[in-house]
Amino acid sequence: MSRQYETVIGLEVHVELATKTKIFCSCPTAFGGAPNTHTCPVCTGMPGSLPVLNKQVVEYAMAVGLAANCRINQYCRFDRKNYFYPDNPQNYQISQLYLPICHDGWVEIETASGVKKKVGIHEIHMEEDAGKLIHDEWEDCSLVDYNRSGVPLIEIVSEPDMRDAQEVIAYLEKLRLIIQYLGASDCKLQEGSMRADVNLSVREAGARELGTRTEMKNLNSFKAIARAIEGERKRQIELLEEGKKVIQETRRWDDNKESSKAMRSKEDAQDYRYFPDPDLVPVIISDEWIADVRARQPELRTEKIARYMEEYGLPQYDAGLITSSKHMADLFEETVRLCNRPKEVSNWLMVEAMRLLKEHEMDTDDIRFSPSNLASLIRMVEQGDINRTVAKTVFEEIFSNDVEPETYVEEKGLKVVNDEGALRSAIESVFAANPQSVADYHGGKERAMGYLVGQTMRAMKGKADPAMVNRIVKEMLSR
What we know:
Blueprint: E1 5-16, H1 55-67, E2 71-72, E3 75-76, E4 79-82, E5 92-95, E6 102-110, E7 116-128, E8 132-136, E9 141-145, E10 152-158, H2 165-182, E11 194-204, E12 214-217, H3 222-241, E13 249-254, E14 259-265, E15 275-276, E16 283-284, H4 287-295, H5 301-311, H6 316-322, H7 326-339, H8 342-359, H9 371-382, H10 388-401, H11 405-412, H12 420-433, H13 435-442, H14 447-459, H15 466-477
Parallel strand pairs: 12-13
Antiparallel strand pairs: 1-10, 1-11, 2-6, 3-16, 4-5, 4-15, 6-7, 7-10, 8-9, 11-12, 13-14
Helix pairs in contact: 2-3, 7-8, 7-9, 9-10, 12-14, 12-15, 13-14, 14-15
Subunit structure: Heterotrimer of A, B and C subunits.
Organism: Enterocloster hominis (ex Hitch et al. 2024)
EC number: 6.3.5.-
């Protein structure tokens, strides 16, 4: 009988903070830009240049720490992590080893079985990002772009509390939503503003001692993280089943090949020779500063769900789906403020917007239409200016091009036809063209009326008021 194994997983999550300038200089942090244009003597490590700490970085780190139930280190400092690599112009990285800003926190996730579970956070520390190497295989050379060098990061180090890919994704999604709601980062994995390294080991079920762990890098999507976890778990179990040892090493995941390869082992791991950075004074965080940051914390997702259910009467499912993206929640709230129809707004977002997002393979953060145009569409339906069939067509234009619905309806002639004379004339033409259906209705087949209503709506190009058409058709058939 084969042995049963338990997977033990901890994460190191790097998050680029949404400051306008870098952590120790005034260079912009905007994504993109021509290579080496967002640089200065400080972030390129020129001799004689001195770092000056960006206060906003400290406040974002504190905000994330408080939201993740961490204790704040009121005396913290920066350390130098010494290593040579071409994308690291100073030959050291400024980080926090000995006294990180936050420690001993937790976030709560829901497991696949629906059980609530706390994942411990060992620490959160501030540091600067390195530059980026671009390997040009065509020219057979490597180029370096220092635009990212000095961009502020926080690294969130979890305890090894997760047991499978589902728990890891739940933890990452919880972290991402907390950070997005705080406005501390956009957490876009595809742009590198959120990156996760996975520390994974396996042990026999019931064993108390941890197995030998490996660290997985190069993970830039939740799907890649899930595949990497499953692949590494299987690899380690196969080694143990064959009587071999797992080597403690860093591995790089190749999502195209769905396999990993060793980058460096423990034997050649570097001694980073950490020491306190001599150019930066310790950061002293007062009780008042913590209280001020805490007072400015926005409403987070859990609180929003409760308020939407109580204030707007939304079901828990609706509230959960809308708040699963901060962008969607902001769009919902502003639209409700403009039209005061929360359930209608919720229905348009959950049904039509979600359908179009799926069709176009877009993320909720890619929605670009304005709340005012959705609110205007909802008012037009409520006032009877357009029916729901036409409204869906108009919404597709709002979704794609953010058109102003009143102008669009006017230009395309889509207003509901409420002219009773015009409707009676159209119905008479439908009756004349479909005498069998009229006869079927009089013969007791009531479904024939539905067909005649449908033909009338078709003749009116969907612009008639369905209730009015139903009423007139029934009246004319009963004669």
